[in-house]
């Protein structure tokens, strides 16, 4: 019997609250808040007809120019992407704390002794937890994010219909929600590789720490950064900025989506474009931008470091049986 799928199912069933329900609840909450905001606006307006530039919604689609339609579609796509990001933000915390407790919790409750009695290697066990953190959770969260974005468009469609507009023309005909969803899914390889050093570090600490794994996982990078900063102030080394950016941040913040953008040489240009138009925001999700991220040396160096730390976590798990 192939035990690896069984191990993945075990991780899912033991942690489905974080894997699935945490992103789902985040999506539901943001949609409920959006609905409440719309109702509040409706009550404040006392149900009066909505006018946009003096044109009733029922006639709006027929009078929009091609450029106006494109800009409206881009605005809808940006709103879809932003609303979809809420489950992904929750995902960042789920991945962080799941990885941190993945091996430590087994030792603390001594269930590690049961799993060691089975024909399951330490390598398979640790890899099942790494794959769960790096693949299962992001895939679940991204799918929930896409569904949340579609939920937003349904609410917008309802608002348009209430005021006499045609949702198919003014919402679904202008926006490209499935394209946005596809781009979010296409960005997953970048997230997996970028989060790898953070997940590797957390698994290593989880396998090593006998207590307070969160403090060890955060304080070791933090105090090492402070030490390097002190050496920089003493003129022993030139600067501590590189260490904070490439070591401390990569070990502790890599589970947050989009962190790779902070390491891009064209970050200022992208930020300027994003501030000028919705198209600039969408360019951050483009396939070209994803391909550019995959060519970053920082991404691959960090991935190699992450694999090395996972290997150390495998070695440690074979030698520490209790928390």
The backbone outline, from C-alpha atoms, is globular
Query: How big a fraction of the residues is strand?
Result: under 5%
Widest β-sheet, arrangement of strands? 1-2
Number of strands: 2
Write down the secondary-structure element order.
Answer: HEEHHHHHHHHHHHHHH
End-to-end separation: 30 Å
Task: Report mean pLDDT, rounded to a whole number.
Answer: 84
User: Low-confidence spans: pLDDT under 50, at least 5 residues?
Assistant: 50-55
Structural class: mainly alpha
Radius of gyration: 24 Å
Task: State the share of residues found in helices, binned by percent.
Answer: over 70%
- Number of contiguous helices: 15
Largest β-sheet summary:
2 strands, antiparallel
Task: Itemize the secondary structure elements and their pairings.
Elements: H1 3-45, E1 51-52, E2 55-56, H2 57-63, H3 66-101, H4 104-108, H5 111-116, H6 122-162, H7 167-172, H8 177-186, H9 188-208, H10 213-233, H11 241-252, H12 267-276, H13 278-283, H14 287-294, H15 297-317
Helix pairs in contact: 1-3, 1-6, 3-6, 3-8, 3-9, 6-8, 6-9, 6-15, 9-15, 10-11
